[in-house]
């Protein structure tokens, strides 16, 4: 995300769209700083001023640390879950490719595109993830048991 704000295109679009002096405010819930709502457990967004553009610039320059032992964000439960999702997806694709046929092609495509439904950040992403995983499980059951109810039953 930091790269998208600091590569120049974001600032250019702002300047093209708005005239005069304007002030940027960012509403973020950084995992290392944000407090949790005591009722929902969701991270609470905080307002950050234009100085965040400098912080984003620093984060963008430190991208080379991503995936290394020095990636402090990589230790969060969310990042660990994302890495596990990638491993799960690769395993599912390997399984599907090993059994792919003309008869199950449509079901294989549905399995392969399930991650497209996982969107957002934080608790929003969590909600989409739960739905996508439930759909994926139903699709995989149908793929593994061709005589079972079809993929339409999963929808």
Protein architecture, described:
By secondary structure, the protein is mostly helical. It folds into 2 domains: 2-65, no CATH class; 76-154. The chain has 6 helices and 2 strands, in the order H-H-E-E-H-H-H-H. The protein has a two-stranded antiparallel sheet with strand order 1-2. The longest helix is centred in the middle third of the chain and has 23 residues, at 77-99. The chain starts with a helix and ends in an 11-residue tail after the last helix. The mean pLDDT is 89.
Primary descriptors:
51% helix; elongated; 6 helices; two-stranded antiparallel sheet; mainly alpha; 155 residues
Distance, first to last CA: 32 Å
Low-confidence stretches: none
How many discrete domains? Answer: 2
Helix content: 40-55%
Q: Structural class, from secondary structure content?
A: mainly alpha
What shape does the CA trace take?
Answer: elongated
Strand order of the largest sheet: 1-2
Q: Helix count, per DSSP?
A: 6
Mean pLDDT: 89
- Report the biggest beta sheet as strand number plus sense, adding barrel if it closes: 2 strands, antiparallel
Listing every helix as H and every strand as E from the N terminus to the C terminus, the arrangement reads HHEEHHHH
Can you summarize this structure?
The chain is mainly α and 155 residues long. It has helices at 2-6, 9-17, 52-61, 77-99, 105-113, 122-144, and strands at 26-28, 46-48. It folds into two domains: 2-65, no CATH class; 76-154.
């Amino acid at each position: 995300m930091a790269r998208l704000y600091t590569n120049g295109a974001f600032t250019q679009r702002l300047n093209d769209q708005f005239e005069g002096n304007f002030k940027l405010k960012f509403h973020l819930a950084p995992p290392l700083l944000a407090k949790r709502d005591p009722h929902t457990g969701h991270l609470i967004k905080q307002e950050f001023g234009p100085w965040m553009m400098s912080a984003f610039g620093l984060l963008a320059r430190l991208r080379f640390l991503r995936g290394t032992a020095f990636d402090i964000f990589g230790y969060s439960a969310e990042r660990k879950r994302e890495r596990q999702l990638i491993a799960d997806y690769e395993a599912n694709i390997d399984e599907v490719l090993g059994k792919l046929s003309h008869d199950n092609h449509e079901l294989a495509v549905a399995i392969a595109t399930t991650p497209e439904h996982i969107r957002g950040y934080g608790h929003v992403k969590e909600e989409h993830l739960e739905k996508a995983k439930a759909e994926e499980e139903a699709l995989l059951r149908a793929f593994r048991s061709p005589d079972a109810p079809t993929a339409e039953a999963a929808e």
